[in-house]
Specification:
mainly alpha, 5 helices
């Protein structure tokens, strides 16, 4: 079962990584395009290279239209895509100044408790995302520049959050089992 969860978490994070890489490339191109566009509009370039500068501007050199909308939707998806692998390998930030000195069974109990709380919080977020998908699907709202339906972004984040919930529930069950049996069943960071 752990191999299946690991595969699911890793595949989701790879997809999120590819989306994030695409967003980085798009943002970089948008910044470069905007900078070149501003330079081509400068008085010096227009005065010196008039026709050539206008020819480049006519090609459409500038920022990527709708880049903020794509960035907003893509980053939300990427965040939810990285949650499962972070959850599975206990990659979340922890403060264990006090708990590290406690007896191992107590530490396992605390770990199991917080794993269950985190799984419940992630399920709540997933339910709220599903509500967002339904709301934006019903009202037909679109983004300002690209005019793509807002529910698309919510759906992508919701799909990744479903995977997050599956992995979170698995992790919570395994941590509770570890706490009850005293045997390690899950990797630690």
């Amino acid at each position: 079962m752990h191999k299946a969860m690991s595969l699911l978490a890793r595949l989701t994070s790879i997809i999120g990584g590819l989306v994030l890489t695409g967003l980085v490339v798009m943002t970089t191109l948008s910044i470069i395009g905007r900078s070149i566009n501003e330079w081509l509009h400068s008085d010096w370039v227009e005065g010196t290279f008039g026709g050539i500068a206008q020819w480049f501007l006519d090609l459409g050199i500038g920022e990527v239209n709708g880049s903020y909308e794509l960035l907003e939707a893509g980053v939300a998806f990427a965040i939810f895509s990285f949650f499962p692998v972070c959850q599975l390998y206990s990659g979340h930030a922890t403060v264990d100044i006090f708990t590290s000195r406690l007896p191992r069974p107590v530490g396992r109990g605390i770990s199991a408790f917080w794993e269950v709380v985190l799984a419940a919080a992630l399920i709540l977020i997933c339910v709220q995302l599903f509500g967002g998908v339904q709301r934006y699907l019903r009202n037909g709202e679109t983004t300002l520049f690209l005019q793509f339906p807002v529910w698309w972004a919510y759906s992508a984040s919701f799909a990744a959050s479903v995977v997050t919930c599956i992995v979170a529930v698995y992790c919570a069950l395994m941590r509770v089992a570890e706490s009850l049996t005293g045997r390690p069943m899950m990797p630690v960071a």
